[in-house]
Amino acid sequence: EGFSDMDPTWTTTILVVPCVVVLTAGFFYLYGAIISLLSKTSVRNKVVVITDALSGLGKECAGVFHRGGSRLILCGKSWEKLEGLADELENASDPTVTFPPKLVLLDFGDMDSMAAAVAEVLDCYGCLDILIFNSSMKVKAPAQSLSLETDKLLMDSNYFGPITLAKGVLPSMVSRRSGHLLLVNSIQGKIAVPFRTAYAASKHAVQAFFDCLRAEVEEFGVSVSTINHTFISCSAAPASTSLRKPGGVSPDEVTAEIIRTLNNKRKEVLIAPSLPKMAIYARSFFPNVFFAVMAAGVKNSAASENM
């Protein structure tokens, strides 16, 4: 009587099941560790440019890439704030495994300064691997109330500025047969809603430019990706959680998507709830229905204002 009298099948099962569980757990642990390692090594030593590094998303990106060992080039409109951000990053990291960020003054709204800024970006390391376009100027107003100067400023900030930078760095990427341009664009690059005429126009324009460019530079080993999101909630405001609109995404969510997109080289990513996604499909397949819904929305908002 005892262990020797047990059914051999049961004995085998008792021994095999724990082994299978341990092996499976070990496999998933290793898989997770490899993926984590790949996400870090994919940016380690890479020259990464981030435009508008002073925004919520820019700062989050800068932190992740800096800790990952990237050679960062941070761009922004304020030299003092850029220096402050660089100090924060260096104080919070191990200097033996990170590189001190390089800083470049860059204002897409000032087209006269663009040539010098592009040259400075290229001079930092002599080349670059990844360029993240993260700048955006927003305006919400009826079309007839916007001046032509405002329209032009939006086009400079959201379209002419970014494409000038892209065209400036492309020869370097093409000659090295490598590089990744990543445009963080609004969902309004895919769909137009009322009271965003100038903003949506600039976002449609920059989306079209990068879509065309993607096909042109593929043969040279240069990747082009676009990430379209609804809107990025400001994580800096303490009350943002209670006031956060539905459908917003946080800077860390977009940063995680940027890392994934750089790894898997997806050409287009849409970060949005199901309703905005349905609106994009409706615009493509049922345009008259989409236009009717948009017009009804404007009438309803006008009626509520008059009450």
In short:
This protein has 307 residues and is α/β, with parallel strands linked by helices.
Task: Record the SSE blueprint.
Layout: H1 8-41, E1 47-50, H2 56-67, E2 71-76, H3 79-91, E3 102-105, H4 114-125, E4 130-133, H5 148-176, E5 179-186, H6 197-217, E6 222-229, H7 240-243, H8 251-264, E7 268-271, H9 274-285, H10 287-306
Parallel strand pairs: 1-2, 1-4, 2-3, 4-5, 5-6, 6-7
Helix pairs in contact: 2-8, 4-5, 5-6, 9-10
Protein name: Dehydrogenase/reductase (SDR family) member 7C
Organism: Xiphophorus couchianus
Keywords: Membrane, NAD, NADP, Oxidoreductase, Signal, Transmembrane, Transmembrane helix
Structure report:
This protein has 307 residues and is α/β, with parallel strands linked by helices. The chain has two domains: 17-272, NAD(P)-binding Rossmann-like Domain (Rossmann fold); 282-306. It is built from ten helices and seven strands. The chain has helices at residues 8-41, 56-67, 79-91, 114-125, 148-176, 197-217, 240-243, 251-264, 274-285, 287-306, and strands at residues 47-50, 71-76, 102-105, 130-133, 179-186, 222-229, 268-271. It has a seven-stranded parallel beta sheet, with helices on both faces. Helix 9 packs across helix 10 (287-306). The radius of gyration is 24 Å and the shape is globular. The termini are far apart. The model is unreliable at 33-41 and 235-244 (pLDDT under 50).
